[in-house]
Amino acid sequence: MKLWAGRFQESTDKLVEEFNASIGFDYKLAKYDIEGSMAHAKMLAHCGIISKVDSQEIISGLEEILAEVNAGEFEFTVELEDIHMNIEKRLTDKIGAVGGKLHTARSRNDQVALDVRLYLRDQINQIKELVKQLEKVLLDLAEENIDIIMPGYTHLQRAQPIRLAHHLIAYQQKLKRDYERLSDCYKRVNILPLGSGALAGTKFSIDREFVAQELGFAGVSQNSLDAVSDRDFVIEFLAASSTIMMHLSRLSEELILWSSSEFDFVEISDAFCTGSSIMPQKKNPDIPELVRGKTGRVYGHLTQLLVTMKGLPLAYNKDMQEDKEGLFDTVDTVKVSLEIFARMMANTKFKAQNMKNATEGGFVNATDVADYLVDKGIPFREAHEVVGKTVLYCIQENKKLSDLSLAEWKIFSDVFDEDIYHAIAVETCVDARDTIGGPAIEEIKRVLEQEKN
Ligand code: ARG
Fold it and tell me: How much is the ipTM here?
C-alpha cells in the first residue's frame, strides 16, 4: 500500500506509523497541494515530459479530489502518512497507473516547501486585511472621541495630559508597521521552490518559470539545496505574528487596567465580558486577558521552530515536519485575536469624565509650569527646581497646582502672573504640544486625515 514500499520487506510498526505521520495536521494543506500538483502536471505536458492526454487526466482527477476535500468527503488515512501521499494514492485509485506520472521530476521535499508557501501566501493576505480592519476601528474611535483628554503615563505614573485619540493612534501606528512587516515577509514567501527535487534538482527538462507563472510566484529559488532545507520564511512570519500579538497584548493589558474600578476609564460591552460563578457583581475582561495569554503561545511557536532548525545539516530532515502545527496554530490565534479585537474595540465606551478627572490629580501640568517659566526667560533647569518645590508645597498642603493663589505662586518665583492659570489648564497644555506627532487637536486631525487614506 505504501508508495515507497519497494525496498522494504517488513511492514511498518503501528506506533511508528502514527508517530511518523503528519496527516493529522497537514490535511490543512490539501487544497494547496492539489493546486501545486495541477501546475506541475500542466508543466510536465508543456515540456513534453508526459503526454497532454495524461496531464489532462491527472488534472481532472485532481479536480475531483479537490471537490471531495471541499465537501468534507475525502478520507485521510494515517497509513498514507501525509497529505502528499494521501492525495497521490487517491489519484491512482481514481485514474489508475497514469496517476503515478504526477510525481515525475518532483520530490515530497520540494512539494512540501511549495505547499507551505502557498498556504502562507494565502494566510498572510487574510491577516493583512484583519490588521487593516483593526487599524480602521482604532482610527474611527480616535475620531469619535477626539475631545477626550486623559493623562499620558510613564512608569504607569501620570505624566502629561494627552488626548485619548493620541493613545489610540499610537496603537494604529504599531499595527501599520505590523502590516508592513507582513508585506515584507510575503516577498520572501512568494518564491517557487518546486523543481528543487529532493535536494539536487532534476534531470528532466522542466520549466520552473512556467510553474511560477501558473502559481503566481514572483520568482524561483536559485539553489535547490537551500530551497528544500530552510523554513526561514515561516520563522519570519512567526516573528511578525509575535509582534502583532505583543501589540495586542499591551492594548489588552491597558483595557484590563482601564476597566478596573481603580481606573474606571472604559466600559467593555457586556457581549465581550463574562461573569463570576460566585461573585454576582463581577464583570470580567476575559477577552483581553485571553489575547494577552495567547501571546505567550505564539512566542512559543516562534521559539520552537528556531530551536528545531538550529542544528539541522542540509538539506531536508524529518525534524522539519515539526514546522506545521505551530504555524497553523499561530495563524488561527492571530486571526481570531485580530477579529475579536476589532469587534470588541468598536463596542467599547470610554468614560470621558473619569479620564478628564484623572488629569486633575498627579500634577500632569507640572512640565507646563516649567515651560511657562522658560517662556519668561528662566533657564529650564532652574525652572524645573522651582516647580519641584511648588509641587512639594502642594503635596504638603493637599492642593492641586490650579488651586494655588497668585500669592502662593509668588512664594516660588516672582515672575508668576495671572496668565499662569490659563497656561496650566489641561486643554492648553495638550493643544500647545503641536509638534509633528504631538497630542494637539490640530495635529491629531492632520494625522487622522493622513492615515484614513
Ligand atoms: N510530511 C513531510 C513534512 O511535512 C513531507 C516531506 C517528507 N519528505 C521526506 N523526505 N520524508 O515535512
Answer: 0.94
Domain final residue pick, 104, 128, 158:
104
Count the neighbouring beta carbons within 10 Å of the beta carbon of residue 14.
Answer: 10
Task: Give pTM, 2 decimals.
Answer: 0.94
The pLDDT profile of the chain, 453 residues, written as one tens digit per residue, is 677 888 888 888 999 999 999 999 999 999 999 999 999 999 999 999 999 999 999 999 999 999 999 999 999 999 999 999 999 999 999 999 999 999 999 999 999 999 999 999 999 999 999 999 999 999 999 999 999 999 999 999 999 999 999 999 999 999 999 999 999 999 999 999 999 999 999 999 999 999 999 999 999 999 999 999 999 999 999 999 999 999 999 999 999 999 999 999 999 988 888 887 778 787 889 999 999 999 999 999 999 999 999 999 999 999 999 999 999 999 999 999 999 999 999 999 999 999 999 998 779 889 999 999 999 999 999 999 999 999 999 999 999 999 999 999 999 999 999 999 999 999 999 999 999 999 999 999 999 999 997
Residue 204 φ then ψ, to 5°: -65, 145
Number of domains the chain is built from: 3
Q: Are 151 and 364 in contact (CB under 8 A)?
A: yes
What's 262's DSSP letter? Answer: T
Which one of 104, 122, 149 terminates a domain? 104
Is the beta carbon of 294 within 6 A of some atom in ligand 1? no
* Together in a domain, 243 and 294: yes
166 shares a domain with 21: no
Closest Cα to atom 11 of ligand 1? 318
Question: Could you please report the per-residue DSSP string of 185-203?
Answer: HHHHHSEE-TT-TTTT--S
Q: Mutate which of 17, 108, 118 to test ligand 1's pocket (most atoms within 8 Å of Cβ)?
A: 108
Task: Tell whether ligand 1 has an atom less than 6 A from the beta carbon of residue 208.
Answer: no
**Pair 351, 146: CB distance under 8 Å:** no
> Is 229 among the catalytic positions?
no
Task: Determine the residue of 81, 112, 115, 230 to mutate for testing ligand 1's pocket, defined as the one with the most ligand atoms within 8 A of the Cβ atom.
Answer: 112
Q: Ligand 1 within 6 A of 320 CB?
A: yes
Atom of ligand 1 nearest to the CA of 83: 1
| Parallel/antiparallel/unpaired status of strands 191-192 and 219-220 | parallel
Known catalytic residue at 301: no
